[in-house]
Amino acid sequence: MGSLIIRQIEIPASCANLPQGSSGSLSYNFTLSAYSDASSAGVPLYLAAGPASTSPEAGDWVIATSKTQGSDDWPYFNMVNGVMSPQAAAGAGALVPVTDPVDQGEVVTFLQAPNATPADIYCGANESDEYLVLSVNNNPNGFSLCTATNDDDLNVVVYEAAPGNTGYNGYNYDTCYAVNIYIVPVA
Question: Which one of 26, 151, 159, 171 is separated from 48 by 20 to 30 angstroms, measured CA to CA?
């Protein structure tokens, strides 16, 4: 009599406790779009230059509702093993921004620096009938859009927004509103 071999699919840590069908590796490039309960229309999100860095070799990027200089160099993202990476357009620089770890109350950032190590904290959560929902730190419901306090006045993506975050990469908590972020495949 033959034996039945059952193969269990390994779920990456970035997708633990999320619904079946969630994945830390997507086979396609995608853009991001923010949805709130108050709005049925999504707001496109872009990789945007963050506050000016004090280092000539490094720079921060944020996810925002408006483009900045350099946004067109990174028109979409991909995700492999929980690492979400901006994808370069033709002619863009060779130094790709990598995901930074993000904790409660922080702006979601990407670091563009030599030898930067990406954080494997993202997942496409199977939480919607239409698109996968972006999850960070196993939480697909922790994002907000908030007005940054730097000179750009960008509306930036924040993870679990909290009052008192006004420093470098800070935001005005009173402007924050909760959103889900959809992963929209690039056609």
Answer: 26
